[in-house]
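ok posting inputs for the 1,3-dihydroxyacetonephosphate job
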Amino acid sequence: MIIANWKCNGNKAMINEWTNNFLSNYIETKKAFIGIAPPSIYIESLLGTKLNKLEEINIGSQDIDISSGARTGAISSEMILDFDCKFSIIGHSERRQLFNERNDEIKQKILKIAKKTITILCIGETLEENKNELTRDVLKKQLEVVKDIELNNSLVIAYEPVWAIGTGNTPTPNNINEIHKFIKDVVQSTSDNSAFPLVLYGGSVNQDNAESFFKEKFIDGALIGGASLDGKKFANIINIFNGTK
Ligand code: 13P
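and the output
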C-alpha cells in the first residue's frame, strides 16, 4: 500500500500536470493499493481524472471531523463516504501538533469510519522522545485509541516519527522493521478482534531510499508527503514497491 498525502499543497493546474507525469511513469500492475489524499476541496477534481479509471488507485481524505453540524470548516465522515473516498488519514502528527488533536478525538474519528472505509491511523514519536528511548511507550499510548474497538482489515497504521517528516532524516530500515513488528503485536493484543494491521512507514521516503524500506518484512508500504507532490517520483516509488514486495 502506497499513499500520497499532499497536505495543504496543489491546485487545479498541478493536478493536470501531476496526472500526466504519473501516468507516463507508472508501470501498471494491480499489485499495490495506491491512495491519493489531496486537500478535500480537490477530491472531486481527482475523481474526475483518468487516474480514477485505474482500479488500483483510490482517492481518500486527509482527515475527517468528529461529527457533522455546527462545526464551521469541518468535513464529516458522511461527506467523505458520499464522495466514495476509499480511505481517510486520521491522527497525523501535524493535526496533533498544529490543531491540538487529542487521543480521545482521534478515537471518535476512528469510530465514525471504522468498517466503512479504510482508516490510516498515524502514530509517531518526537525527536526528544526518541532520544530518551521513549518510542515504544509513546506508540503504545497512541495506540490506545484502537483498544476495545471491533476492527477488521480496514485499520492500517502509519508509523511516522515526527522527526523524520520533511527532514531527510529517517530511522534505519531495520529499526523501522522492529517498530512495525511491535505495532502489529500491540494492536493484535488490544483490539477487540485481534486485527493484525498493515503498517506503513512515513517520513522522508523518496525514490532513493524506498527500496531499502520495502525489503523489510514488516514494512507493508509507505505514506508519502513531499515526494508525492511530483507525479513521476510518486509513480517511481510505486514501481519500486511492486518490484520489491
Ligand atoms: P514527508 O514524506 O514529506 O516526510 O512527509 C511524510 C508525511 O507526513 C506523510 O503523511
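notes: The longest strand covers residues 118-123. The pocket of 1,3-dihydroxyacetonephosphate is lined by residues 5, 92, 160, 165-166, 202-205, 223-227 (CB under 6 Å).
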